[in-house]
Each structure stands twice: as C-alpha cells, then as structure tokens.
Amino acid sequence: MASNHELAVEILQTIPGYVSEFQFVFDSSHININMVTESIAEFERTLVTPNSRFDQWLLGDKDALTDQEKDGYRLFKLTGCAGCHNGPAEGGQAYQKMGSFNSYDTTHPSIGRQAVTGSRSDRMRFKVPTLRNIELTYPYFHDGQARTLEEAVDTMVWVQLNRKFSPTGNAKAVSFLKTLTGDLPQIILPILPPSGPDTPSPQPFE
Ligand code: HEC
Fold it and tell me: Is the pLDDT of residue 205 over 70?
C-alpha cells in the first residue's frame, strides 16, 4: 500500500504508539519486517467465518442441511469438485490450471502464475479459491466473468471436469455452495497512533 518493506518499518519505528506495542508483544523496540508480517498474519488468523450451516452439519446437526443441499454436497464430491476445492477452506491448497479439460475463453490478459514463475507450464494456473462465503463474493473467476454462482458452476464443471450438469444438478450444487456462508467477524476499527515528527511520508516510487 504505497510502501515497501524498508519504508513500512521506518514509518512504524518513528511512531511511538507502535514502538510500545511491538515492545509489549515482541519484547523488542527495534521493529523489523518479520515482526510486522507476523503481526499482520496474526490478525488475518482472526478473519475466520465459522458456524456455516455446512459446519453445523459436519459437527453432527443432521437437520442443518436440506435434502437438496445434501444432494449438492454429494454431487460436489462425486463430480470431482472436491479434488481441487478441499480442506477447511474448500480451496486455497494448490494452484491449478483454469481449463484443465476444456479451455477457458476470456479476453482478460492475465496468464496466471506464469507471470510469477516465468514457467510455461504455469500458464493459466491460479490459486484454487476458497468456496467459503462464495455466495457473497461475486463476480467469480480471476476476470470476474461469471456474474452468478449458477454460471460459475456450469463453467467449472465443463472446463475443469469435462462434464455438464443438468439444470437440477446445477441447482443442487449451487444450493450446497450457499451453505458455506458463515458468521462474519465483527471488527471494531482501532484508533491508530498518530505519526511522530520524524515519520516519513509514503514515497515508494522515488
Ligand atoms: C482442477 C481443479 C478444479 C476443479 C476440479 C474444480 N475447480 Fe473450481 N476453481 C478452480 C480454480 C483454479 C479456480 C479459479 C479460477 C479463476 O480464478 O479463473 C476455481 C474457481 C471456482 C469458483 C469461483 C470462485 C471465485 O471466488 O471466483 C467456483 C464457484 C468454483 N470454482 C466451483 C467449483 C465447482 C462447483 C466444481 C465442481 C463442478 C469445481 N469448482 C471444480 C479449480 C478447480
């Protein structure tokens, strides 16, 4: 955010309110970038959305899902979606090609992970996204091309698995995905400590 590691550390080091917090947590008033990333990671660990109806069902509440949603979960596993979207976040565990079987048509210029690694085999590979709260995070895919979950599911089943869902199958899968919406964290915005006299302004591009 208009910064780099050196500048971020320098800014924090000149703000007494941060220095005392780092002293308290890390027992050191000499801030370094590892302390900063560890702090951010610790905050991000609180950004979980527990208690979705799917979680309640996994914990044994047999009535937390309707029959239609349970059918959708069965389809999700049987068709092969769970091969990529798995683990506690139903995703986030791997990079996979967008278009494993059939190519994904897009005018978007992104080449996926190849832009990071330079390797041709990473062309159109993207991080498998989490499906938690997927109902709330449209539009879908790296180019935002799918505007509805119905469309995203139809595209996935075709490009990734070379199959087609009937309208009923699609509706079942979508109804399952909607059970993955959890309780969102309530974040109370902190009042940030003010800058000190020596705090540099952001000048990342000089
Ligand atoms: C081969 C691995 C793989 C399989 C199998 C797979 N997906 Fe995906 N899925 C991905 C990847 C990679 C993306 C990200 C694509 C992109 O951003 O362009 C994705 C994206 C999605 C998205 C959009 C997420 C978002 O936040 O934009 C949904 C919804 C989805 N998948 C559902 C499914 C369903 C339902 C199935 C089964 C029919 C399925 N996926 C099968 C790898 C897979």
Answer: no
- Would you state the pLDDT for residue 73? 98
Selecting from 1.10.760.10, 3.40.50.720, 3.20.20.150, 2.60.40.420, what CATH number does the domain 53-180 have? 1.10.760.10
Answer whether 98 contacts ligand 1 (Cβ < 6 A): yes
Q: How far is CA 203 from the centre of its chain?
A: 29
CB-CB contact of 29 with 23 (8 Å): yes
178 lines ligand 1 (CB under 6 A): no
The answer to whether 105 and 159 are in contact (CB under 8 A) is no
Tens of pLDDT, residues 159-201? 999 999 999 999 999 999 999 999 999 989 989 999 999 998 7
Q: What is the pLDDT of residues 105-159, one digit of tens each?
A: 999 999 999 999 999 999 999 999 999 999 999 999 999 999 999 999 999 999 9
Q: CB of 153 closer than 6 A to ligand 1?
A: yes
Strand runs (DSSP E) across the chain, as ranges? 95-97, 125-127
